[in-house]
Amino acid sequence: MATINGNPGPHTLGKVRTHPTQNEALMFEKSASGKRAYKLPPLDVPAVDAKELLGPAAREVRAELPELSEIELIRHFTRLSTWNYAIDLGMYPLGSCTMKYNPRVNEFVARIEGLAEAHPYRPESLAQGVLEIFDLLQRCLLEITGMDAITLQPAAGAHGEFTGILLTRAWHESQGNPRKKVLIPDSAHGTNPATAAFSGYAVENLKSNAVGGIDLEALASRVDEDTAALMLTNPSTLGVFENEIHKIADILHAKGALLYMDGANMNALVGKVRPGDFGVDVMHLNLHKTFSTPHGGGGPGSGPVACKADLEPFLPIPVLVQNQNGTKSWDYDRPQSIGRVRAFYGNTGMFIRALAYILANGPDGLRQTTEDAVLNANYIRKKLEDLYELPYKTPSMHEVVFSDKRQAVHGVRTGDIAKRLIDYGFHPYTVSFPLIVHGALMIEPTESESREELDLFVDAMRSIAREAEEKPDLVKTAPHSTRVSRLDEVQAARKPVLRWKRQGRGRE
Amino acid sequence: MRYLPKSDEERRQMLGEIGAASIDDLFAVIPAEYRLDRDLNVPRQQAESEIVGYFRAAGQKNATDYVSFLGAGAYRHYRPVIIDALVQRGEFLTSYTPYQAEITQGTLQAIFEFQTMIAELTGMDVANASMYDGSTGAAEAVMMAVRVTGRHKAVVAAAVHPEYREVLATYALHQGLPTTLVGYDAETGRIDLGSLEAAVTDETACVLVQSPNFFGVIEDIPAIAEIAHKKGALLIVSIAEAVSLGIVRPPVEADIVAMEAQSFGVALSYGGPFCGVVAAKEQYVRQMPGRLAGQTVDGAGNRGFVLTLATREQHIRREKATSNICTNQALVALMATIFMAVYGKEGMRELAEHNLAKADYAAKALAAQPGARLRFKGAPRFHEFVLQTDEAPAAWNRRLMENKIVGGIELSRWYPELKNCTLWCATEVVTREQIDAAAKVLAAAPVEA
Question: Which of helix, strand or coil describes residue A258?
Fold first, then answer.
């Protein structure tokens, strides 16, 4: 067992030692009438009588919001924050999520006054600065993907998928037939089938072949004149590059179907290979994965969609255009557009961060980032493959997927190993996904981990493998070091308590 | 590269341990014909100081020293500094979706507090953890109503934000969901109740209105609810200005509320990221889109929170999910949570009162100028109003711009019948002096020959 400063303390396990966290009630439970965390300036216009102005539309009863002072709010949220794990604390090897370092300069520049306070309807003459950012980011993303046209509008990956499939649909319609179905490999993210259904397509699942890739024969037999597209994640959710990608594209194109690429795993490709060069017609990017914008506990994301020239007329409105005098403006006159997918222009704050990341890297940094991400995943694979089952031996790109087959004989499942990792100071990997691997452990270290942190992770995983054999109950009841132990999810779902309520209070 | 924690020597060692001769071995699976054998054509690697310089210059080009009366779905309110101090804590900023509840209790409890406060403000029973924005939230609420009712038609008020309606059209098109538009009363700016009554049928899944609506006018929610419910349709109320709930009666008769919470401490940021949220009556919770945090206990009986009712969601249900949404707007929802807590029970009211007073003053000051008048006077407003002028808005807007003022936005862009009408907004950050200055410029129309 590793030690800290050479002294094996009673609470030291690998890189962590327990330390107390503070209890903190809900804000509502701490509220006391009359406490304030705000002060408005004196009103410089005549006060108004709300009841007189609004009549029956006036609010009678104040909403039951908490009443607390500023220091209490600071402590409240600071204490809550200490109950979270975060990239800033250590490795966060969630497969498919690309939990890389979120550079602080990104946060700084996104808050520059002229950008953060820009109203979306300000005249274009007063928005040239932000439009230039849109333009440069668009050009960088097109270069990185090898595509021809792009929209930054979608708010997240799934929203980008929706946009991309609508582009696909619009293109097919322009060819005379919207077609009926979308093919989706069984290894795909859940958003893919949900998106296809949401876009009015029937979903047809495609079984993966023996190496976890697309089965070309099966694909060829399934693609017909009713097939709108194949939604493909490349590298796949197994972290495997579809090396016959050109044949996949050819099979689709021969029947007039399109190749959609889920760009969730773009961190394995940037600077090394471009989807536009290997036959992809339309794809989305996740700026919150590949381009370092923070996950923020679940969002916001940003899901730009890039496409080939054929699909460009259908992009959501508005589209950024350059005027003859060099200024930029929004073009709303796009008769073939699929329409809007959200209000305004997109998650601008995320564009600023993503561009800052691209600028900080440059071409050499982007390539090195991809190489390091792939190096790290392969290093973990090498260091763990003797203890954890590797269901697919195909070469790994940026992530590696093991199964719990060898631990399961002791009754220890992937979810248990994941929970035990918490005790060793790591966030769990992605559990039980992709679905094609029974008991999957999906590990994506990203480029942001030093060799030292990777070694600590490897030590932890090896130690847990030993524990699974020798002390399986220790693993099955983990975590043991957290504020709360495993939570009763069944009760949460059966009798949902989704908000706080004052006991015995009547409703408005 | 400064974000990469490895020396070249360490890279070489690691490759050696893997058994790879060079990094190229790890990319050998990619067919050679597709491998990029050149540098990407993106700007060269920049120093942090250069990056800051680039964005500062872009910010300055955007011009910051203008007074603005723009609203229309994006509102400028004061943002208490503790918001950014707290949301930039790495434990919030750099944490993932709280699927691993034991080490994300901070995020989960904050979501639970967000859901509670949104429910309190809107008069709904439950609220979700957030949606992308107000527009997609409204569209998803309509889809939800379709699932709840099993009906496939929607009735939409013309005074719903035009861009929200455009988004709904995109979402509805491939769902086989025809929508009927109901116009507004020319005097009050409210939905035309007679037309609404005629439009709602036994096949209507829902009625979607916005309140305060796009003209800043507060709709008669009880009357609209009655018409919708009489035919078994659900009422969805879209709220683009969350601060209004401090003083405007919550739409308790609604079945679903789709809200944009940008006003709660979220920077304008040229339109995003904002913070949508869907709230609803309890009986509809299993048809809601998006994530929900719920309270439960651990093995020792400690209170804790988890993401719950996930069987609605795409990662479990795939093509049968209630929505394809995965990533939401969590950190922005945290901003809103902190904002709601800073103002609290009394402050939310006081803040809304200031907005009401500023807009009332601004509306009177501007409408008092020669050739100017208020439209939609017959109904209550919050902090936006429609001004109609004899002079074309393009002309006086030019004068305002010369005085570093951005006036109201022209409505003819979306409502051709509202000629020379502009939508103005005055929040608590606008001063009397600024309003008076705008009125003065407006009045200074060139004398016609």
Answer: strand
Distance of CA A201 to the CA centre of its chain: 24
Partnered with residue A290 across adjacent β-strands are none
ipTM of the complex: 0.97
What 3-state class would DSSP assign to A380?
Answer: helix
Tens digits of per-residue pLDDT, B420-436? Answer: 999 999 999 999 999 99
CB-nearest to A344 from B271, B305, B338 is B271
The pLDDT of residue B448 is 53
What pLDDT, on a 0 to 100 scale, did the predictor assign at position A212? 86
Reduced to 3 states (helix: H, G, I; strand: E, B; else coil), residue A172 is helix
Sheet with A440-443: strands ordered across = A400-403, A440-443, A430-431
pLDDT at A504 over 70: no
Residues of chain B contacting residue A197, judged by C-beta atoms under 8 Å apart: 319-321, 324
Cis peptide before B162 (omega within 30 of 0): no
The verdict on B419 touching A (C-beta cutoff 8 Å) is no
Q: Please, which pLDDT band fits residue A4 given cuts at 50, 70 and 90?
A: very low
B378-417 core/surface letters (b: 16 or more CB in 10 A; e: else)? ebbbbbbbbbbbebebeebbebbbeeebbbbbbbeebbee
Summarised one tens digit per residue, pLDDT across range B305-358 is 999 998 888 888 888 888 888 888 999 999 999 999 999 999 999 999 999 999
Please list every residue in chain A whose beta carbon sits closer than 8 Å to the beta carbon of residue B412.
none
Contact by Cβ (8 Å): B217, B190: yes
Which option is the CATH number for B82-340: 3.40.50.1970, 3.40.640.10, 3.40.50.300, 3.90.1110.10? Answer: 3.40.640.10
Q: Which residue has the tokens 């890739």?
A: A213
Residue A308 has a pLDDT of 98
Domain spanning A369-492: CATH superfamily: Aspartate Aminotransferase, domain 1 (3.90.1150.10)
Among the listed residues B118, B162, B172, the one whose alpha carbon sits nearest the alpha carbon of residue B142: B172
- Locate all alpha helices (DSSP H) within B368-431, ordered by sequence: 393-402
Specify the pTM: 0.97
Give the residue from chain A lying closest to B169, CA to CA.
A339
Does residue A370 surpass a pLDDT of 60? yes
Among 3.40.50.10540, 3.20.20.70, 2.60.130.10, 3.90.1150.10, what is the CATH number of B67-77+344-443? 3.90.1150.10
